[in-house]
Design brief:
heterodimer; A: 74 residues; mainly alpha; B: 235 residues
């Protein structure tokens, strides 16, 4: 049973290679996109922390700015 | 006209639904993998090598669908001068590009046991390779050019020119004599695939569509935060 799943009558190498390549490609793309997203979120949080009180007030009036900060916390 | 597509409003939704899309993708992919690798029957001619179809075909479909969407959004962005549509199109490109690579590589792996060769310069395979080049040009153009108006113009032209290739990919197997088989799944005519093989194919297509949605949401959020970062500098 296990041998049949692994070797698939001689086609196992091709089948597992195709599925592995697909899943590795997915994982790589997800990781790269996630790294970029976190990098931009961190940059935003740092920049926001450096603003003076008046500018913070202005920036916080925008719902998207609040959402970015909230998404960093969660 | 396009007020509902305002980035601020979209971000409030996209930043929240990403984790649910990821969760749903993992569930659908798991079911799809079990169906594709263990439960679906082997083919009477191709034996177990037919299982490669469950990653190859959905990848090709998703890749073609995404490029068509990019081209449509580029046209709208070009006509209505709406920059948000070009950001949406830009955010779709990475997953389409990867799906195109997956379609070509898994097709090549499937070709070896089925046709006896890794590669053939037939109409379907060559047109898919051309599509990959258009994806590469589109992504590179966004990286190379800094000026906003210019980059939107150039990427729109690339997307529209690339869209001409999409029907060529789809109908290449009907218009020319190719090594690649004709479509087994048809919307307008009868399917020539058994339901026991169609089911995992559709589940895997749903999983791949969810993955492209997930990548799109993350990339789109990244692009919007980038814009906001520049906005903070100007405060």
């Amino acid at each position: 049973m296990i041998n049949e799943i692994i070797f698939m009558k001689g086609y196992g190498l091709y089948v597992w290679a195709a599925f592995s390549f697909t899943l590795i490609s997915f994982a790589t793309l997800y990781t790269l996109i996630k790294i970029n997203l976190v990098k931009e979120q961190n940059k935003f949080t740092t920049k926001f922390g450096l603003l003076d009180k008046e500018k913070v007030k202005v920036a916080q009036t925008q719902s998207m700015n609040r959402a970015i900060l909230a998404s960093r916390i969660s | 006209m396009f007020k509902m597509f305002e980035p601020n409003k979209i971000f409030l939704v996209t930043s929240k639904i990403t984790k649910y899309v990821l969760f749903l993708f993992i569930i659908v992919l798991s079911i799809g993998l079990v169906e594709a690798l263990f439960l679906s029957p082997e083919d009477y001619i191709q034996s177990h090598s037919v299982r490669i179809m469950y990653v190859h075909v959905p990848s090709a479909w998703t890749s073609l669908g995404i490029f068509s969407l990019i081209a449509s959004l580029s046209v709208i962005s070009f006509i209505f001068k709406n920059k948000n549509f070009s950001i949406i199109a830009k955010s779709l490109a990475p997953s389409g590009f990867v799906f195109n690579i997956v379609a070509l590589v898994t097709g090549s792996i499937w070709g070896k046991p089925t046709w006896g060769t890794w590669w053939a310069w037939d109409a379907r395979i060559t047109s898919m390779l051309i599509l990959l080049l258009f994806y590469a040009m589109y992504i590179l153009a966004w990286r190379i050019f800094d000026e906003k108006e210019k980059v939107i113009k150039i990427t729109s032209i690339i997307a529209i020119l690339g869209a001409i290739n999409v029907p060529l990919v789809k109908f290449s197997v009907d218009w020319w004599s190719t090594l690649h088989q004709v479509s087994s799944v048809n919307i307008l005519s009868e399917n020539t695939i058994h339901p026991s093989m169609l089911l995992p194919l559709l589940i895997m297509t749903a999983a791949f569509s969810l993955f492209s949605l997930l990548i799109f949401l993350m990339k789109y959020n990244t692009e919007l935060i980038k814009i906001k970062n520049k906005g903070l500098d100007r405060l």
